[in-house]
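Ticket #4471: structure output looks truncated?

Reporter: J.K.
Steps to reproduce: submitted the chain below (345 residues) through the standard prediction queue, then opened the result file.
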Amino acid sequence: MIKNKIKTRNQIKNLIKGKKVGFTSGSFDIMHAGHAVFFEEAKKLCDVLVVAVNSDDSVRSYKGSDRPIVPQKERAMMVASMEAVDYVFLFDERRNNINIETLKPDLYIKAGDYTISKMTSTELVEKNGGKAVILPHYKGFSTTKMIKKIIKIDGKNQENTNGIYSEIMSAKKQGPVVFIDRDGTINENVGYLHEPEKFKLLKNAGEGMKKLYDMDFRLAVVTNQPGIGMGYFEKEDFFKVNQAMFKAIGPFKILIEKIYFCPHSAGEKCECRKPGIGLFLRAKKEMKVNLKECFMIGDMDIDMQAGKKAGLTTILIGKDKNIKADYYAKDLLDAADWILLQQRK
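Returned output as attached by the reporter:
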């Protein structure tokens, strides 16, 4: 019986003692043949296959308010209907740390669109005597492709497809945002930078943003550009420098979703210039995020002040303890590692 497979986490803990346990997790929102193949291959590696299904609140925390399409109880039942699956439970956390600490699986199994380095719980699995395993990604199976086909057949426009169309849109990351200052944090700080050829990526900046992106964080740049207001250069010059930045980070295959900038000089007393929080309030509305779940990384006191006023966790690139910050990082990669540590906690 399907319902007999669906238990609580603690119930399953007591049912799997003395067996070789394989564990995996996911939202499983609109299941397809790829999921069935994955479960079948995973079961071959263990005696008992346990699957954790993200609750509705958990899914919304990293995929946005439009997800999931299928309610949690129905998703759990669909997973439990798979012959290869032995037990299923729902969980509210965003990550698997508590699941792994409770079940202590022998194998933590994920599909090939992950890598061992991207799996934030690998260290915890190994600490408990287990092993992380990546199974091949089965190409041709995609929830997004399924929904696109439905839209095409349905023939309706985007406004009338409601939740179906939103599934495609939410394929983009919709979790918390890491706001990053540009000059002095991503690239070398050149006074009033407006010449693209002078843009130079800082050491470990690309690697740090890549790690954040792989952790399902969205990236946005928040920068003061007083040189525009003072007449030193035009907005077009600022855009050209941004293009140089995109070119420099291209090999890392990451997406900077938004660039928020203040073009005003200090004398104009605007609300968007850091340490003001106008840009963050705009981002809150446009990116639909809870700022308290977000981070601000910068190299100056005004970055930290703005982040703190907006309710973000602040990270200073530098060791100046006269500037108040939640963490002091040597570069963006160090900042990303610290954020990862907070997620694991």
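Triage note (M.O.): checked the attachment and the full token line is present. The longest strand covers residues 48-54.
Status: closed, working as intended.
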